[in-house]
Amino acid sequence: MGFIFKGFGSSGTFAHGVHPPERKGFSDGAPIEVIPPPKKVMLPLLQHVGAPAKPAVKPKTDVVLGDKIAEPGGFVSTAHHATISGKVMKTGIVTLTNGRHVPAIPIKAGNEEQLSGQALWEDIFGGEWPRDVDNYSSKEIVDAISAAGIVGLGGAAFPTHVKFVPNEKKPVHTVLVNACECEPYLTADYRMMLEASAPIITGALLAGRAANTKNIIIGIEDNKPKAVEVMKKAAAGTGITIAVLKTKYPQGSEKQLIMAVTGKEVPLGGLPLDVGIAVSNVSTVAAIARAVVRKKPLTHRVVTVTGAGIKNPKNLLVPIGISIGELIEYCGGLTKDAARLISGGPMMGFAFANLDAPVTKGTSGITVLTHKDVQKEDETNCVRCGRCVDVCPMNLVPTKLALASRHKDIELAERYNIMACFECGSCAYACPASLPIVQLVRTGKAVVIAASKK
Amino acid sequence: MANDIQQAEVVETLHATSLRVQDAPVIHVAPSPHLSNTDQTTRTMMRDVLIALSPVVAVAVYVFKMYAVTQLAVCVISCLAAEMLFTGMRGRKASLCDYSAAVTGIILAMSLPGTAPWYVGIIASFTAIGIGKIIFGGLGMNIFNPAMVGRAFVMIAFASALGASGYQDAKSAVDAITQATPMDAFKQGGVIVPLSSLFWGTTNGSLGETSAIACLIGGLYLCIRRTASWEIPAGVIGTVIVLGGIANLLNPESQWTVLHHLLGGALLFGAFFIATDPVTSPLTPKGKLIFGAGTGAFIMLLRIFSGYPEGVMFAVLIMNSLTPLINRWTVPRPLGGK
Fold first, then answer.
1. Which of A114, A115, A382, B184 could form an SS bridge with A37, CB 3.0 to 4.6 Å?
2. What is the rounded CA–CA span in Å between residue A389 and residue A25?
3. DSSP state, B272?
4. Which residues of B touch A393 (CB under 8 A)?
5. DSSP letters along B57-104, please?
6. Cα Rg of chain A (Å, integer)
7. Which of residues 161-220 of A touch B (CB under 8 A)?
8. What span, in angstroms and rounded, lies between the C-alpha atoms of B303 and B126?
9. Which of B29, B42, B335 sits opposite A432 (nearest CB)?
10. CA nearest B20 in A: which residue?
11. Coil vs helix vs strand at A338
12. Residue B140: closest CA among chain A residues belongs to which residue?
């Protein structure tokens, strides 16, 4: 792979990190299935980073798939759209898998015909996708992204239009498409690359066009050789580079990916934009293609339902707002030894217990672990072995952060740069003493933030 | 009669319900990450140390026979007893199964002369565990290497048993024990022990320090398993080579070469087994290098200029006390930070 990185001054990897078991085998061979349209969806008004959206429809209105039901509540916010056809019901409150209670607009399906199965797939990812995107202007693309309510589909759910709004002071010179999917178990992005490479390529070209750059790189980990092959074939002749990266967690984290591909360091507290890079997930760019070329909003996403605790692991194309319980039921239900439901992957995902929680735009997977998977040794004192230091991709001293958090010592926490931690969990994964380092750091960050607001 | 049937039905229904409840998965929530590396636990780290110590123990038993066996038994049993006693006094549950007390016991035994009387081993063990470890809060909380605290105490309290003459026992049936230790023989009489004896370990000395090869095998195992950080022994050995080399250059007629410095005394045992104690050494790779280099420098300082023939114990204890400072100096630069 050396030649790919020659121009970038990078080694194709980042410092530190861990190698958790990949366990992609549960679902990586399962083609994406379109789930039958549900009877009801709950569309939370806050599915993204930033301000909540504002409802744009009154209860009892009839809507069809794709109608706008909520307006952005600010610049860092997005619109939301009906993901099935039906009647809007009274706004209620849902508990998301991350524990937040947010208002949500329910839509109940009546007897109207729903787009489903193969027809829905064709509507979203099928058909022809243009390779020549020069006739779209930058503004046109950003407006279409914004109108389609697209957020980062990798999990963080940052409103995508914000990344591509032209910025005079910080021009973008590289668009980096994140196809690492470094979380164990998850295979949604992998299946997308195998089955929907055309819209991904078009979306990547459009993202480059929006940012006014021809330098587009798709970063894929080397544990997905099939995806690399398919994407290389699809990208031939477009000028897009496929960068094959050494498999390591957390490569899919923005800052680590930028380091691996370009050798650049995003300044502490800064954004990729500060080094002239815009990063978007591979499924996100497919949504961009659909938004720009077909003027269709983001209504569905691919979710991996996987783990030893699920009877039939699958990759599903589901309407946003469908309850997670329905997904699990469609996959045959939980096994007897299922122990933990996780929204996302096992390293950074949230454990939840409420099966009524809806799928949001950021739900990349539902991982169900068994008692055996989550087994842990008893917690002991920290033996200061420094293994957390050896694995921290941000080059922090996690055990000191945990200590500072435990004692609410703000000065110590800040001296060791607690706010730089993005909670990837590498330290807690590697910790021989089984200390809940991430959990402690989270509380420590909250204390530091509270103190800075005073 | 009817009542009985009713009751039976109720019991049956209850039974069925409880079966259903049993069949249902038990879901619980917890903070991420939901996976952990179960190959590496505090207990497996301690077990690695025990495995790494086995060549050292084997050579000690081969060279010193029953002296080694007795000293090991005394120290290990006393350390375990002390751990039980003192954790019990703190009202904590016994922490014997993490093997850390056993490790302290073996390292302590290996750092004592085989001829030291039994009560010296017991007193050293209780000091090591009580004052060296539990008083600070037990495993992971201590500032000084417990085994070295125990050894330092008996070295001062029982100077005759641990001083130069303590290592020699004319009545001993074991040849090695009738000789002076190599470091002492050189310091007192300028006698040079051949390198091959230092390498294989057929000399007198503390039980575990005589054989360079045994320390190297065990130490490399620890480093490969990453139970010990290679930076520490590298720092110690590197510094000893540099300083020993300078000493040789300044004093070219001395027969005590860099290699003697490396293979003789407790240097390798100290570098691989004592200085690498994670609890009492710095956290970052850079800090570990500084710690190792500092330990090496103090060892050479004590060996060349002090009245003691050997300086590993004091060097490690001094650097232990500097560890918090080293941690403070070596806060790593976070990715993207200044």
1. A114
2. 31
3. I
4. 335
5. HHHHHHHHTHHHHHHHHHHHHHHHHHHHHHHHHTTPPP-GGG-HHHHH
6. 21
7. 184
8. 28
9. B42
10. A336
11. strand
12. A383
Length of chain A as a residue count = 454
Do residue A425 and residue B33 have CB atoms under 8 angstroms apart?
yes
Q: Name residues whose C-beta falls within 8 Å of residue B79's C-beta, 6 or more positions apart in sequence.
A: B101, B102, B104, B105, B108, B125, B128, B129
Please name which of A177, A266, A272, A265 lies closest in space to residue A219, comparing C-alpha atoms: A177
Supply angle C-alpha A157, A160, A166, rounded to 5.
Answer: 150
Give how far Cα A95 sits from Cα of A302, A359, B333, Å.
21, 11, 39
CA neighbor of A217 nearest in space, from A225, A226, A207: A207
* Closest CA relative to residue A188, chosen from A149, A223, A140, A153: A153
B123 phi and psi angles, rounded to 5 deg: -65, -45
ipTM of the prediction greater than 0.90, yes or no: no
Q: B323 to chain A, minimum CA–CA distance in Å?
A: 11
Six token digits for residue B250: 């300044």
**DSSP character for A380?**
-
Cβ distance A387 to B226 less than 8 Å, yes or no, reads yes
Q: A430: which residues sit within 8 A by CB, 6+ positions away?
A: A18, A387, A388, A390, A391, B37, B40
HSE, side-chain direction, 13 A CA sphere, residue A43:
35
Tell me how far apart the alpha carbons of residues A199 and A209 are, in angstroms, rounded to a whole number: 15
Residues of B in contact with A255 (CB under 8 A): 335-336
Measured between beta carbons, which residues in chain B are less than 8 angstroms from residue A265?
335-336
Instruction: Say whether the peptide bond before residue A250 is cis (omega within 30 degrees of 0).
Output: yes
CA A25 to chain centre: 20
Which chain B residue shows the shortest CA-CA distance from A337?
A: B25
Chain B residues near residue A258 by CB distance under 8 angstroms:
none
Question: In whole angstroms, what separates CA A138 from the centre of its chain?
Answer: 24
**Rounded-to-10 torsion of CA B211, B168, B106, B120:** -170
Beta bridge mates, B20: none
pLDDT tens digits in sequence order for chain A, 454 residues long = 444 454 455 667 898 999 999 999 999 999 999 999 999 999 999 998 889 999 999 999 999 999 999 999 999 999 999 999 999 999 999 999 988 999 999 999 988 888 989 999 999 998 899 999 999 999 999 999 999 999 999 888 899 999 998 888 889 999 999 999 999 999 999 999 999 999 999 999 999 999 999 999 999 999 999 999 999 999 999 999 999 999 999 999 999 999 999 999 999 989 999 999 999 999 999 999 999 999 999 999 999 999 999 999 999 999 999 999 999 999 999 999 999 999 999 999 999 999 999 999 999 999 999 999 998 888 888 999 999 999 999 999 999 999 999 999 999 999 999 999 999 999 999 999 999 999 999 999 999 999 988 7
Q: Do A384 and B278 touch (CB under 8 A)?
A: yes
In Å, how far is A95's CA from the nearest CA of chain B?
Answer: 15
**Residues of B in Cβ contact (< 8 Å) with A385:** 45, 227, 278
A41: helix, strand or coil:
strand
Q: How far apart are CA B46 and CA B53, in angstroms?
A: 11
Helices B42-64 + B66-89 axis angle, to 10: 150
Q: How many CB atoms lie within 10 A of CB A410?
A: 17
Contact residues for B94 (Cβ-Cβ < 8 A; gap 6+): B83, B84, B87, B88
Non-local (6+) Cβ contacts of A75 within 8 A are A50, A162
Residue of B45, B332, B335 with shortest CB distance to A255: B335
Reported residue count of chain B is 338
Predicted TM-score of the model (pTM): 0.90
